[in-house]
Amino acid sequence: MFSMKKTMVAVVFIASAVIISVANAKTIRIGNQGDALSMDPHSLNESNQLSVTGNIYEGLTARNKDLSLAPGLATAWKQTSPNVWRFELRKGVVFHDGTPFTADDVIFSFQRTASDGSDLRSYTNDLKEVRKINSHTIEIETQAPFPILPEVISLVYIMSKKWCEENQATKPVDRRKGVENAASFKANGTGSFRLRERQPSVKTTFTVNSNYWGKIEGNVTEVIYTPISNDATRVAALLSGEIDVMDPVPVQDVARVNASANARALQGPELRTIFLGMDQNAMSCSIPA
Prior knowledge:
Blueprint: E1 16-19, E2 27-32, H1 47-53, E3 61-63, E4 69-71, E5 74-81, E6 84-89, H2 103-113, E7 127-134, E8 137-142, H3 149-152, H4 161-166, H5 182-185, E9 193-199, E10 203-208, E11 222-227, H6 231-240, E12 245-247, H7 254-259, E13 264-267
Parallel strand pairs: 2-11, 2-12
Antiparallel strand pairs: 1-12, 1-13, 3-4, 5-6, 6-8, 7-8, 9-10, 10-11
């Protein structure tokens, strides 16, 4: 995926990517095997979906380049009791439409994440209450002591309460059931990139947020994201210069990519854990008498 703010081109939640030298580039063309199905950050709990919307929206906590926890829309947090976390919110942040970011947006976004239609409700299951202390301080009370709360909520992206109310998008909708609302194809976050044009399954164009609160490394001002599902077509597009970055790199093509004059495969860890579970209902055995 493209940079959120830490690098000019970065990979988020994936194992490998390819990058061409972009030292003098301003537009980066990315080819991915899939598309984000919605621009709603609470609609789908899926890696590629969250990687894309994570450039537009932000959580209270974020990740450094080494995937360690970092401040996001919250500058500091601490436990004030075994079941209560207090978060100090970043001041001077505005949404892409110019609306100031406040505690009301945080409370609204957590309620929205926990509502029907949200695919990220599992991130809020352990929460009892999110309450406002003042315009830039909130407390999160959990059902029981929950020491990893700051880690878990990094993917609960914050939306503008005002924008959602004005656009009749106060609740997420299930895109997999064919339901959409304004947040499905429009976006208004605080992130380092803005959504300029959305053509589902064709291409999505992002532009840099000139009012971003943080430092944006690199010189990328525009990102064109194109889904290319076929591995061979995606590799050919990279090697021909049609795209600048591709993800993922088919394992069988890593050597070919590295042998080309202007591309190389990058590999690194991801946050996702994958495990295999046995279907015990389908298993049978006999025990000797």
